[in-house]
Amino acid sequence: MQFPHGFMPTANPAGAGRRGMRPEAIIAAMTSRRHLLLGSLAAPFSAAWAQQRRSLEEPLRLGADNALVDSGLAQALQHAFGRDTGVAVQLLRSPALAVLAAVERGELDAALCNAPEAEAKLEKQTLVHDRRLVARGGYVIVGPAVKGKVRDPAGIAGGKDVVQALAQIREMAGATPGLLSFLSANDGSGTHLAEQALWRAAKAAPAAPWYTMAEPAIGLAAQARALNAYALVERGVWAAYGGAPLAVLVDADPLLAEEVHVMRPFRANHPAGKLFVEWVGGPKGRSLAAGHRGYKAAAA
To answer: 215 and 288: one domain?
Structure first.
């Protein structure tokens, strides 16, 4: 058994523990014991604080869908949060499904995504929490621009019905081989998932050779412009990278709506994770997102 310095075991600890000791020795012994006790109590808290300090010094890992990075929205939120809080954020881009898979494994501290159905599945399984709506965006169908009286090959320019437009693209492509091409992101991004859902709604099965796949290392908008192809593009991305020889041909259909959510994983717990989702999903983050080209305000 170990005893604090200055104390010795006795035969009768209840009555003779300090008998015969000088007053200054008793005071010194009590002070030593108090320091030892306080030190032992403080040790766990000191260790926990040191661990938290180390964690806070590590950047918060934010995964974001490709379109939200290409549009600049993710960077705008990253930098504004950093300025406001002093917390460093490491931005990691991937298609939405890859981001959500990393969230499920606990490899990210937060995520910014535009794949609501896939997000909701993880939320239902309690693999993500604090999921909040940040902004509302949208998708547009772009294609060869109308030149004077010459319409685009599929004749969909100015349409408001995306289902009808896709069915028309499929019909014209089948009737006249080589007339047009449609470029798909084909990468598990929010844009790709939205496109697949729209083809299903149109009850039209796209197929080669007119239906082609984009190269993952090159932006979808840039590739569509280079190929003069039709494509479904996220509105914020088109605002950043769109232009001739393509133009927006179909817009404003409610089926083209996009929701952008922030969330954090169940299997990772960065000390600033909750603060991040509260800031991005709160008034400051939503206001910033609403002022970014291609996005609108999200309700509180």
So the answer is: no
**175-214 tens-digit pLDDT:** 999 999 999 999 999 999 999 999 999 999 999 999 999 9
Q: How many domains does the chain have?
A: 2
* 129 within 8 A of 153, measured Cβ to Cβ: no
Residue 137, Cβ density class (10 Å: 0-12 exposed, 13-18 middle, ≥19 buried): buried
Residue (of 280, 278, 268) closest to 58 by Cα position: 268
Distance CA 267, CA 141 (A): 38
Residues 6+ positions from 76 with CB-CB distance below 8 Å:
288, 289, 292
Task: Decide: residue 73, CB within 10 A, 0-12 exposed, 13-18 middle, 19+ buried.
Answer: buried
Whether residue 162 is found in the same domain as residue 194:
yes
State the CATH number of the domain containing residue 144. 3.40.190.10
Verify that 291 and 229 share a domain, yes or no.
Answer: no
Between the alpha carbon of residue 157 and those of residues 86, 166, 251, the distances in Å are: 47, 12, 10
Type of residue at 98: A
pTM of the model: 0.80
Domain encompassing residue 103: 60-137+260-297
